[in-house]
């Protein structure tokens, strides 16, 4: 039972899938690279990290610029995975959306609005990739908060080599179920292009998305004929690895 893993870092999830006896295909859509370190201001009331990787890079390369330990700053993340990462890095004061909420900027903003400290916010730093959404910054700005961005890494699209395509085409959902993992809007866009360009619809069986917006995005991007001729099932899961594994298990064993 194959699982197509599309994130840049699939080590833990791949090992966990293989322990359960599932075949994994490592198909990272993006590769990440750390951007040159630059001087930054340190007088922020809140530091927001868009994902675990941004937090790891920031703690590794920017901690020396602060006059007090980073773990004592108020910090926020858009999901529980990043929350766990920050805690492992030593952060003590971390805000994240509730576990049962969508893990995104909108949910984080609602959590900020409900915080007793929200109206004390004057300056916020958002640590992210070179390109990213503006929604959270725009929403904070409407409340008079100054928002700065710090890009700590860049993403590039990985080239698709012939051997990987052959490996994917050898799979068939007529023999056993196949699960594709989609965990970002950018990833959904590129996968829709690949599925069409390389004619991988025979391998397009179960699509597992970490946000409902990605499901709608894929449905709008693929031609209508795909939905008329192919039996594609969509599933939603939380972005934490353990939740992804539980959902894959339900797909394979129809629990």
From TrEMBL:
Residues in domain Tetrapyrrole biosynthesis uroporphyrinogen III synthase? 13-202
Identify a single GO molecular function assigned to this protein.
uroporphyrinogen-III synthase activity
Q: Which InterPro entries match?
A: 4pyrrol_syn_uPrphyn_synt_sf, 4pyrrol_synth_uPrphyn_synth
**Biological process according to GO:** tetrapyrrole biosynthetic process
Name the coiled-coil region(s): none
* CDD domains reported for this sequence: HemD (cd06578)
Q: Name one Pfam family in it.
A: HEM4
| Name of the molecule in the record | Tetrapyrrole biosynthesis uroporphyrinogen III synthase domain-containing protein
Q: Which organism is it from?
A: Basilea psittacipulmonis DSM 24701
């Amino acid at each position: 039972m194959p699982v197509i893993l599309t994130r840049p870092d699939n080590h833990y999830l791949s090992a966990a899938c293989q322990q359960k006896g599932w075949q994994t295909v490592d198909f990272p859509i993006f590769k990440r690279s750390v951007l040159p370190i630059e001087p930054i201001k340190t007088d922020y009331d809140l530091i927001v990290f868009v994902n675990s990787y941004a937090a790891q890079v920031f703690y590794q390369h920017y901690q020396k610029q602060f006059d007090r330990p980073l773990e004592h700053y108020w910090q926020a993340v858009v999901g529980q995975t990043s929350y766990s990462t920050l805690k492992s890095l030593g952060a003590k004061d971390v805000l994240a959306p509730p576990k049962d909420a969508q893990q995104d900027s909108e949910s984080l903003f609602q959590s900020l609005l409900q915080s007793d400290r929200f109206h004390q916010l004057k300056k916020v730093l958002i640590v992210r990739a070179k390109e990213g959404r503006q929604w959270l910054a725009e929403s904070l700005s409407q409340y008079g908060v100054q928002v700065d961005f710090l890009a700590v890494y860049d993403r590039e699209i990985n080239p698709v080599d012939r051997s990987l395509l052959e490996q994917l085409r050898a799979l068939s959902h007529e023999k056993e179920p196949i699960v594709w993992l989609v965990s970002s809007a950018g990833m959904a866009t590129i996968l829709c292009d690949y599925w069409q360009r390389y004619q991988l619809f025979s391998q397009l069986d179960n699509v597992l998305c970490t946000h409902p917006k990605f499901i709608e995005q894929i449905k709008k991007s693929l031609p209508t004929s795909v939905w008329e001729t192919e039996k594609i099932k969509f599933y939603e899961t939380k972005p934490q690895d353990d939740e992804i594994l539980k959902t894959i298990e339900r797909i394979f064993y129809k629990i």
